[in-house]
Amino acid sequence: MKLSMQKKTVLSLMLLAAFGGGIVADAVAFDARSPDRSSRNKSQKAEVRYPDATREEPKTKASTKMQGKLSKLFKAYEKENNDAETLALAQDLLADAGANEYDKGMAAQLGAQAAYNLDDTATAKKLLQQVVELNSLDNNAHYQAMLMLAQLQLQDDEFVPGMAMLDRYLAETKSTKPEDLIQKGQALYQMEKYAEAIPVLQQAIAATPEPKDSWYSLLLASYAGADQPGEAVKIAEQLAAKNPADKKAQLNLVATYQQADQFDKAAAALEKMRAAGQMTEEKEYRQLYVTYANMDGKEKEVISVVNEGLQKGVLKPDYQTQLALAQAYYYSEQIAPAIDAWQKAAPLAPNGDTYLNLARVLWQEGRVPEAKVAARAALDKGLKKPEDAKKIIALP
Q1: What CA dihedral angle connects 47, 53, 58 and 64, to 10 degrees?
Q2: pTM above 0.85, yes or no
Q3: Chain segment 113-132, per-residue pLDDT in tens
Q4: Separation in Å, CA 320 to CA 80, 173, 244, 384
């Protein structure tokens, strides 16, 4: 007769611990775009970055009285590693009562970039907000400032103003640039608005001849977050097939299979990694044996993986590992090694339950004196139902 132990419950908890949250999305780096230093060269015609923008470019130009200060600011900005001086000159010009809106807009833009370079994002955001509110620069500069402000707000988890600014940027510029859409998709993902992120990310990927793998990873994580495991599996399989040597892509595939309750495919993916020599960490061996433990009739596979991991020194002989080994031996009718594993697991257990299970097995095997010793140890460690151990101790 088998023991009435919570095999699946114990191993499911181990599975959760092994995966630690499941699929990991690759972060898409925010691109705080700087003003183009070459754009002030009169011999070069500036690229029109926003040909479909709804905004009419202002006619305001630099004031005559501020030409000296602007020239000094430009020269400071063009020097490498001169951000502190640039920011100081920009703030001085902004405080000058004689500066017009264009002068201030230009000073705020260059000062914002200098502040950003100095890791002073609070000042950078404040100055970028001024650029947007002054509304005095050409479309290229105005919308670059708007986008950079949105990026910094989102980067600082200021999701409401950041998303509002990003939506305004997209609406006014009519931009369908993939890199802009990805910014919105990532922000929606970070806000846990997975269903809203999916179509945005799909649009960005469809508009790009060679989408980045990180974009697909973000889409994969959004599908998983939106509880669409079938679509997540498709993306994960594509990434894994494209990058067979990328361990992260393979482990994301495993996590996706797990979340879709496709344990057989998860095991096969992990075995493929094992054969390729990619399983080098404890958590990876644990993932594989826990996956097998959640499948019916895979006790021999659990035993094989655990013993290999222990022999290689990759797996530690800790409580979870010894418990999984004991259960796998027991359910495959290998009682002697099961007892040995339980004897190793019991002292490491948080309570007396493992000692009690050991006592039960020893009693079933007719090893009553040893069963009594284990039952006493179970009482010492603590039991919710101590009467079960006391019954064993009271045996003749």
Answers
A1: -20
A2: no
A3: 999 999 999 999 999 999 99
A4: 56, 56, 30, 20
